[in-house]
Amino acid sequence: MRTGTITRKTAETDIAVSVNLDGTGTYSVSTGIGFLDHMIEQFSRHSLIDIECRVNGDLHVDQHHTTEDSAIAIGQAIAQALGDKRGIVRYGSAYSPMDEALARVALDISGRPILVWKMEFTQPRLGEMDTELFEHWFQSVAQAAGITLHIETLYGQNNHHMIEGIYKGFARAMRQAVEIDPRKADAVPSTKGQLGG
After folding, report:
1. Which residues lie below 8 Å from residue 70, measured CB to CB, with a gap of 6+?
2. Residues 85 and 153: beta-carbon distance below 8 Å
3. Secondary structure (DSSP) of 34-76
4. Under a CB-based contact definition with an 8 Å cutoff, are residues 75 and 17 in contact?
5. How many CB atoms lie within 10 A of CB 85?
6. Which pairs from 79-84 meet CB under 8 Å and 24+ separation?
């Protein structure tokens, strides 16, 4: 099993995260931000990556540290579980419809982290979560996991549908990318012989 476990404690957050890339999409998520919990659960369920994520953060200040640090820890746990990335498919992409909204996500587990984000919200909050934090969550997870990540909403009207489509698309793209390629299970998928580092 390809697993990763991260514990991270700062003056702002206390986090414990574990992932299993070869899981079934089971999850236990508690960040203190209901909408973020819902999105991480969607990611787990549709990627088939088991996730346990517990965050105690300084929500009396705002949601920024909890959102950022949860993404960093999840990204670090994924990177740990991937190890030298031997045998992975590496690339993944998905179109993800959510009612009237359509998201497109493409990624490369390249070791060269970058986020390209093309999504605009028309309201400042979803539930109790500030919508500006979603881009930051994806930036942080891409940086920590070493992912080249392109995300866009092609169209949509309902903000909830648009961001949920993005998380589900990210999940499906990650599911493809972390799979072991049976034709090259012993090789790192790069002509360099390594990914990242």
Report:
1. 13, 15, 17, 31, 36, 40, 53, 55, 137
2. no
3. HHHHHHHHHHHHHHT-EEEEEEEE-TTT-SHHHHHHHHHHHHH
4. no
5. 21
6. 79/4, 79/144, 79/145, 79/146, 80/4, 80/5, 80/6, 81/2, 81/3, 81/4, 81/19, 81/20, 81/21, 82/2, 82/4, 82/21, 82/109, 82/145, 82/178, 83/2, 84/188, 84/194, 84/195
pLDDT in 10s for each residue of the chain, 197 residues: 899 999 999 999 999 999 999 999 999 999 999 999 999 999 999 999 999 999 999 999 999 999 999 999 999 999 999 999 999 999 999 999 999 999 999 999 999 999 999 999 999 999 999 999 999 999 999 999 999 999 999 999 999 999 999 999 999 999 999 999 988 877 666 556 665 76
State the residue for tokens 């919990």.
37
CA nearest 27: which of 45, 15, 7, 1? 45
